[in-house]
Amino acid sequence: MDRSGWLIDEHGIDLRKALKAKKETGRVSPRVHDAPSAAVIRDIEAEVLIEATPTDFKTGEPGFSHMKAAFESRKHVVTCNKGPLALAYYALHELARHNGVQLRFSGAVGGGTPVLDFGKTCSTGDRLIGIRGILNGTCNYILTRMEGEGVAFEAALAGAQKEGYAEADPSLDVDGFDTAVKLVITANHLKLSKAGIKDVKIRGIRGISSKEVTKARREGKAVRLIASASAESGLVVAPTIVEREHPLCISGANNAVEFDCEYSGPKVIIGKGAGGPETASSLLRDLLEVRAKIDGQPGSRPAWRAAGAVGGPAR
Amino acid sequence: MRIVMKFGGTSVASAERIKNVAERVKGSGRGHQVVVVCSAMGDVTDELLALCADASKGMEKPVEERLASVRETHLAALAAAVGDKEVRRKVQGMLNLTLSQLEKLARGSTVLGELTPRSRDAILSCGERLSNPIVMGALIEKGVDAVFLTGGEAGIMTDDRFGDATPLLEVTKFQVSEKLSPLLAEGKTPVVTGYIGATQSGDTTTLGRGGSDFTGTLIASAVDADEVWIWSDVDGLMTADPRLVPSARVLREISYEEAGEMAVFGAKALHPRTLEPVAEKGIPVRFRNTFKPDDPGTVVKRNPKLYSKSVVKGVALVKEVAVITVRGASMVGKPGSAARIFDVMGRSGINVLMISQSVSESNISLVVARSAMEKGANALELALLGDGGYRHILTEGDVSAVAVVGGAMRSTKGVAATAFGAISAKGINIKMIASGSSNQNLSLIVAEKDAKDTVRAIHSAFRLDRLNS
Lengths: 315, 469
Ligand SMILES: NC(=O)c1ccc[n+]([C@@H]2O[C@H](COP(=O)([O-])OP(=O)(O)OC[C@H]3O[C@@H](n4cnc5c(N)ncnc54)[C@H](OP(=O)(O)O)[C@@H]3O)[C@@H](O)[C@H]2O)c1
Known about the structure:
Chain A has helices spanning about 15-25, 35-45, 65-70, 80-100, 115-125, 135-150, 155-160, 170-175, 175-190, 210-220, 275-295, 305, and strands spanning about 50, 75-80, 105, 130-135, 200, 220-230, 235-245, 255-260, 265-270. Chain A is of the alpha/beta class and about 325 residues long. Chain B has about 475 residues and is an alpha/beta fold. Chain B folds into two domains: about 1-230, 3-Layer(aba) Sandwich (Carbamate kinase), CATH 3.40.1160.10; about 315-465, VC0802-like (2-Layer Sandwich), CATH 3.30.2130. Chain B is globular and about 75 Å long. NADP nicotinamide-adenine-dinucleotide phosphate binds next to helix 11 of chain A.
């Protein structure tokens, strides 16, 4: 499904053909459809919705309506769309629970790097004290360039745009908003906080001068846009000076997150924080998890049904 | 400030009163952002309930009569409450739409002689869907930029237990905030039907008894209101029912927990979950009298400071209860006995109000609504008597419960002693001492004939009649 229509085929869609059509015509479907997308999602017979429409940080739409329609019709949801999750984290979970289906979103933070799953594993059987990390690759890329080439923020940003690391409108990235949204999702997912996006103290990297960056470098340190969450200081996104030796102090368009636990101590996960194929891999991972959980559940749909056989008892 | 004002059925019972509501909203709400929530007019909900009963029996004539009366009530109220022609025409259009839906539903069910829970809720919701547009009209006439929404349109989403639906709290909070906050920011005054929600597929549901208050607190929590004002025709929450105890006083301040206990024990018919959404955020709820706009009423809030020296804040009488006692020597020390009993009651759909277990006598006593006594006793007999351990199941129907309510009561020494002393001084025998789930109340079971005297004795023993002096 895209903005102009959708493809439906009970026997499966020929992906190669669909992608070719998308490339050539800009549309997945030969026809332009005008029924509301949420209604299509609700009425179609399918088991899972993969929601990957653009993130809207203000309303969460159209993602929220899409997911709501999926839940209403008892479909599982796999998504990497941060907007609805940051704005309506508990509402979406409540809807999933109410309808007895799963909501998975490992691609929403860290792209293909399983930041949320890693954090969950770290905090299971231990008490999570705090999270600290770099959650936006674009900002990190810009800061790294300022550091390496001694250039001003504007020049580094222009460079990042030329290389395709930053959008034409970079404000969501450089002003810290994208980082804050991911911080909210992570903190809620790990039950560290019930805070929403309004509760995050946000300062982006626009005001950083090359002087500050150079000074930090001379002292064996570096400026990074750090997102942090803890019971004491709440949720904060701010440029922070970190030791160059610290594992969080990564370079380039990467993400790194540290989970500090009371008994097992701090652990860090590092990886690419975004990218199409990377994020797609996490969608696929979630999809397989959905399948695995259905199969593991007693009384769930038997495997022969999934294999495409017909007949048998109704659900 | 952002204020949610909820008006009960008596406050909107006539055109005159609807105008008074508009006056209150305009006057007390000046300089504030206000959301208005109203119940159905006067006894319209009762009329609709009766209509449902008639329709499900296929009784055409009474159904028609009731439909006519509902139509008449609202059209007359509109004519008298809204003078401006333009506004009246707008409201009239809304009423006609709802009235014709109501008529279709009622006639359809009458023909079938059958009423599904879903249709029943659609019919019951009409009371609020008719009263609120008139209030909106009266507000517009006073120059307030009011807009009408049903609970479902405002974003209140519930499960599909028609008749007593439970809101999905998180979804509701998100959706209501998305819908109402922008309206408030634009300076509009949303007028939202109390008592009504919608399922995820858009079917209308009702929230059960006292549901309009619940609508008010749900909305308050969603839009981060500063206060909720629940307007009715009484002065506030009181230390006791003034019909029982003439010297009962209005409480100026009490905690959510105390108010919750009073609700459970019937001091005011609050929906049991009314305070949940506001307690979580610490939003104060003010109970006020529509006819006494200068009276502050009762504030329910976090950590009330007033009356910090009085442990006991109120005493309530729960009539129509009964005690079921399960006796059996071998129950002593047998783990899970109480759980087993609760399980049986739960499966029979019987709500256990209180429990009392005396280990030495190996008894477990349950307090239930009197109407559920027989059913409960039968269920317990069937389930337990074959088991050996349980010997007898006894019932006692002519009893009442008296609940003494107050913060942190059981951690304060002497409360029970004072209460018992006062009661025995009157020569009244306490049959059972029971506890609810919190430490905010102490409940006593006495013979029904002694109940009123017990309430009065406790009220004066704790000097509740002098609370505000
Ligand atoms: N790319 C990443 O590295 C990355 C990493 C983590 C998370 N994410 C998240 O993943 C989501 C997708 O990102 P992306 O980079 O793939 O964005 P994108 O290239 O802009 O793709 C968005 C797709 O959604 C479709 N769409 C937009 N509105 C729609 C509507 N109302 N109904 C149906 N389809 C609609 C668009 O259709 P048209 O083709 O017709 O415009 C387009 O195909 C975003 O929420 C993003 O935040 C992305």
